[in-house]
Sequence to fold (452 residues):
Amino acid sequence: MARLFGTNGVRGVINDDMTSELGLRLGKAIGAFFGGSVAIASDTRVSADMMKSAVSAGLMAVGCRVLDLGVLPTPAAQYFVKTHSHVSGGVMITASHNPPEFNGIKCIAPDGTELHRSDEEQIENMYEGEIPCKPWSEVGTKEDVLGAAESYVDAVISLVDSERIRAANLTAVLDCANGAAHYTAPLLLSKLNVRAITLNANPQGEFPGHLSEPTEENLSGLIEVTKYAKADIGIAHDGDADRTVFVTDEGKFVSGDKSLTLMAEMAVSEKGGGTVVTPVSSSSVVEEVVVRAGGAVIHTAVGSPVVARKMIETGAIFGGEENGGLIFPEMQYCRDGAMTVAKMLEYVAKNGSLQKRIDALPVYFTDKRKLSCPAAERADLMRHLMEINATRNMDSTDGLKILYSDGWVLLRPSGTEQIFRIYSEARDAETAEKRGTYYENLVRDYLKTCGI
Fold:
């Protein structure tokens, strides 16, 4: 049986591998798994209504009551499911940071987390088999639900030092990527008395402002405006607003590793210790700073559901990924863009210049690359790379992490796209780049032998 669910749900190009027929059938399978009342929401993609309608029809065909939350950030939908005991699960229609031609279907467990892999396998088995529909008198219904966005924002505000933030009279430049944060993010800043200069805050699923992946090259407008406006901080979300990245008061892009480090240090300091969970792809700066603050770090495979479940298992006080996806357990066990914004605003209100705090961190240099790689070649490519590095110190928690005395290289296929990622970190930029080039050439040479 083919695997449908990747690292973050089912994704594909609309009317290619992500079709209304797939949505309908998968909706039936999801409905048969959850039963009862199922919440559904979407980001702003052009295909959102098509896919949400298809999945909703499938849910109703097997007797589910569909609660349509409208356009929402993924964590807002997760919070709604978590806080409504009569809701048996949820579905988010989103492809997160992928280009506008993509869309996806992500399932939400009753506790607001993303479904465990074993549950996804059950849905996949149902999808492959016969899914009985209800008779005409027992089909499900659909109703619009209002207020989920406001409840989510208020919950975030209740978990930070809102008075300290309000008193700081901060100015922020906010880039919503024409995505799901277009309403919740400005509302959050308004309620926290943060003067907001907004960019790409209208919901347009073609992402006309820039691609929804919040990388430095995609955020040139935010960087320029933050510097020109002399704002205290620049804030950027991805398409479904479960991730957030920042720009400093001097107009410099902050890598996700560094914002993760600051938030981890803050959590450990506030709690007087504790465990932080992060994937093997995160910079060594995280562990260095967390240990120095009196905490400990556990590394996992890449993927926010993996991080979240390890946090639950270990009672961790904080967790997150190097891509700006941070998890605050006091709110919920999932990546939460709005919570990340609020906690960083609190951090700036308490500590002053974000640039000065970034400058005080230990320095590591990371070289990141990605190459096109067909899914069919991944397993053989990984075996090839393991054979070449058999004599080196390696970590196979996720992909292949080759450990050096002054850094590491991580080689792994993406869980959401047909690409192969190469991360190289070292104490100096030249070494990081040199190792990145070496392993990129190894991968390219292997793919050439496969005729790619």
Summary: The longest strand covers residues 365-372. The chain is about 40% helix and 25% strand. The chain has a mean pLDDT of 96.
